[in-house]
Structures are given as C-alpha cells and as structure tokens.
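Slide 14.
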Amino acid sequence: MTTPSRADLTRRCLVALAAMDGNPMQQDLLVDAMTLRFHPRPTRGDVEAAILEAETSGYITGTTVDLEGVFWTLTTKGSLKAQSLRS
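Slide 15: predicted structure.
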C-alpha cells in the first residue's frame, strides 16, 4: 500500500471539519481524524503540510488559543468544497 497523497489528506481535512458543523477542531484532533483508516499512516509532517496547504488555498482558517493550540474551521470556500466531496 502507498502513503496517501497530499490531495487525499486535504480532502480528509475538509470532510473532517465539515463533520464538525461549524465548530472549531483542535489541531491534534484534526490530525488524528485525517490519519484514521490510512495504512500505512501518513507522517505527522505530511498531515500538517496538508493542513497548511488547505489554509493557503483558502479552504480553512486557524485560530491560536493560548495554552490550547490551534483550532481550525472551514471557510465558506471550504464548506462548498467539502459539500462537493461528500456528495
């Protein structure tokens, strides 16, 4: 089996955040959600790179909360893309 592509990880990121119905998701939980069911599991570096790529592409936005880390949510663009991925 091959390691998931960056596109696979980005799609998983958007779908995981869409399942939160607009609530923010802490980065560690998002990383876990993105790696479930992939064998072999992608590296944390690959997953975090996909998260940053999704942010750069305007699909997600992050907010840093003191002592808690980064929380991610979908942008409007990300919500629309996630809807198309789920259908």
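Speaker note: The chain has four helices and three strands.
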